Amino acid sequence: MTVPSSLVCPICQRSLAKSDSSLKCELGHSYDFAKSGYINLLNPGKRNNAKTGESKEMIQARTSFFASGHYQKIREYLIELVKDYKKDLIIDAGCGEGYYTEGVAEKYPESTVVGFDMSKHGAEHGAKSSRAKGIANTFYAVSNIFNMPLYDECADVIINLFAPVPYEEFARVLKKGGYLIIGASGAKHLMGLKNILYENVYLNELNIHKNAAFEHICIKNLTYDIEIFGNDTIMKLFTMTPYYHHTSDADKSKLSVLSRLDTTVEVDFTILRKI
Ligand SMILES: C[S@@+](CC[C@H](N)C(=O)[O-])C[C@H]1O[C@@H](n2cnc3c(N)ncnc32)[C@H](O)[C@@H]1O
Ligand SMILES: [Zn+2]
Q1: Of the ligands numbered here, which is closest to the C-alpha atom of 29?
Q2: Domains assigned to the chain
Q3: How far out from the chain centre does Cα 216 lie?
Q4: In angstroms, rounded to a whole number, what is the distance separating the alpha carbons of residues 48 and 50?
């Protein structure tokens, strides 16, 4: 684990420093690391109002599905996108269980890569996995990405995959000239899965990411087809999608008998530069 020097106290916004197994600010506000190595940096007064982020079940499904290797190309593509950027501090905003955070950190050991997620199960998995693999340049915290415990203009790169996009907060935290990379579902993403579940299937709309604080650099599209064998992996994929919450039991049952699924994977990466 690497504790970034740009962390601020969620209560008083003063600098946080490591002291034994906690982080403390000069006013004495203290945050303890969990045994697994993540830390909860939600403002204690606001924790009860906070949405809890992804459930343990969804986080575990994500981890199992990633282990099947079907999203490895997305991770490699992302790693390549940041290759030429200055990247001392990279923030993975809405990092989930840390698949992309960890991939980027492993590839770029000189960078500090911070994973923030509202789900403590996500932060916990990320921290455990880094420790198990001996990856020393990650830091995972439970945090609301609309209000991150970071100084203004401290980050070189923010990555944000399949998660909410708080432009103002990203603009506050990014250095001038820093990059924001947003990965979102492309038009035909998981079409094969949707075709099994629903009668009338539509293409996903293109997400146009624009904000006055950013210069639009480009949109890069990654599209490929996958064949998933085994119902367990198919169900893991389904469980980590938004469709999991919005599908009737009758439609879900169409998936539960499937032993092979062919589908397109399509991600649009929008790259913006902070002005
Ligand atoms: C669809 S998942 C994507 C996770 C990860 N980027 C990935 O692709 O595997 C969206 C994630 O955003 C997190 N999230 C949603 N709203 C958030 C917020 N306001 N602050 C922090 N995390 C949030 C959820 O807990 C969830 O882990
Ligand atoms: Zn404080």
Answers
A1: 2
A2: 52-274 (3.40.50.150)
A3: 21
A4: 5
Looking at the DSSP assignment, which residues form a beta bridge with residue 15?
8
pTM beyond cutoff 0.90? yes
The tens digit of pLDDT for each residue in 182-210 reads 999 999 999 999 999 998 999 998 888 88
Neighbouring CB atoms inside 10 A of 40's CB total 16
Distance CA 85, CA 130 (A): 23
Residues with CB under 6 A from ligand 1: 53-54, 62, 94-96, 99-100, 116-119, 122, 144-146, 161-164
- Ligand 1 atom 1 nearest Cα: 162
- Judge contact between 117 and 95, C-beta under 8 A: yes
Side by side, the strands of the sheet bearing 39-40 are: 39-40, 138-142, 112-117, 89-93, 155-161, 174-185, 260-274, 214-229
Average pLDDT over residues 5-34: 96
Cα-to-centroid distance, 26 and ligand 1 (Å):
31
Identify the band that residue 42 occupies on the pLDDT scale cut at 50, 70 and 90: very high
Q: In angstroms, what is the C-alpha Rg of the chain? A: 19
What's the average model confidence in pLDDT over 136-150?
Answer: 97
- The H-or-E segment that residue 170 falls in is helix 167-173
